[in-house]
Write a sequence for this structure.
């Protein structure tokens, strides 16, 4: 598998469903969040990303219609043959395209869920599906012990698809290390990792460095902390305050500084932009030109505090 060289990718978690936990969605998306409106917005965002050199796109079964939007875009963009696609299974979108849904997504890491969701992902994305992640693996997930699931994932791996997992929660480092010990027939099961890393929550860094050293592809998500490290929020945490101070000194946006801090990690293969608008995407891409002299992670939140705060963010 040949991978592109640009180190920023784009994820459609916030762009391809009407509600999410990122801020200022009313300003970014307006009041019209009908399916075709968000499809057109997502296609325009993908066009801008591709024109800027982005060649990795991250979607998931639970990101509304992200796989469908991406598949439609790829179908009419023959020049985008060099785009690498990663998707995720293990959550289902159940929000029914409503802003006020009581539940927007449901977690299921069972073998049955994999057997149900993979054909749906492959049916939309076909052979373009290069990486398939188990979505938001945590220490209590049955997927860590389910040998029947491991065998099914190994068969997918043998077919040529890279098999991996994403992580969430305060114990990401533990999960990365445990998951990367799993073997089937003497081969490591997982060779791709997608984890949250940002200046407010860098605790997974050492485990991600070990993963990269072992040969895994490491992808950073939530580099701007679901909007806390963007101009849309004035977060009072010391690390966020320091990031804004550095941004002012550099004449840059705080989102650019946060993205640049993630790009500075030598183990990061790709850092995802979760932009909803083209202007946000361009700001994130501007991080590639920043040279950060400061390590901003020394003021990070305790992981459990960070994740409790993230869990409390409202869907809008």
């Amino acid at each position: 598998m040949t991978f592109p060289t640009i180190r920023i990718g784009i994820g459609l978690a916030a762009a391809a469903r009407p509600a999410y936990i990122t801020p200022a969605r009313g300003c970014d998306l307006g009041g019209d969040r009908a399916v075709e409106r968000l499809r057109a917005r997502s296609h325009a965002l993908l066009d801008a990303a591709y024109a800027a050199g982005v060649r990795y796109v991250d979607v998931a079964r639970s990101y509304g219609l992200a796989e469908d939007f991406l598949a439609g875009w790829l179908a009419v963009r023959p020049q985008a043959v060099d785009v690498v696609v990663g998707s995720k299974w293990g959550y289902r979108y159940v929000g029914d395209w409503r802003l006020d849904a009581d539940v927007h997504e449901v977690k299921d890491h069972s073998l049955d869920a994999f057997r149900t969701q993979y054909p749906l992902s492959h049916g939309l994305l076909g052979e373009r599906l290069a990486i398939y992640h188990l979505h938001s693996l945590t220490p209590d997930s049955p997927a860590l012990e389910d040998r029947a699931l491991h065998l099914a994932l190994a068969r997918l791996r043998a077919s040529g698809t890279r098999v991996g997992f994403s992580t969430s929660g305060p114990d990401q480092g533990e999960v990365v290390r445990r998951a990367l010990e799993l073997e089937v027939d003497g081969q490591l099961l997982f060779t791709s990792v997608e984890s949250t890393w940002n200046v407010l929550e860098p605790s997974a860094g050492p485990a991600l460095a070990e993963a990269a050293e072992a040969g895994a592809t490491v992808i950073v998500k939530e580099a701007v902390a679901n909007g806390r490290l963007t101009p849309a929020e004035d977060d009072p945490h010391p690390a966020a305050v320091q990031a804004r101070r550095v941004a002012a000194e550099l004449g840059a946006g705080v989102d650019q500084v946060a993205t640049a801090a993630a790009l500075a990690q030598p183990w990061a293969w790709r850092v995802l932009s979760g932009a909803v608008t083209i202007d946000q995407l361009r700001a994130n891409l501007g991080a590639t030109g920043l040279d950060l002299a400061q390590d901003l992670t020394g003021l990070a939140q305790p992981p459990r505090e960070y994740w409790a705060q993230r869990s409390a963010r409202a869907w809008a």
The CA atoms of residues 10 and 273 lie 5 Å apart. The mean pLDDT is 96. Residues 35-51 form the longest helix (17 residues). The longest strand covers residues 129-137.
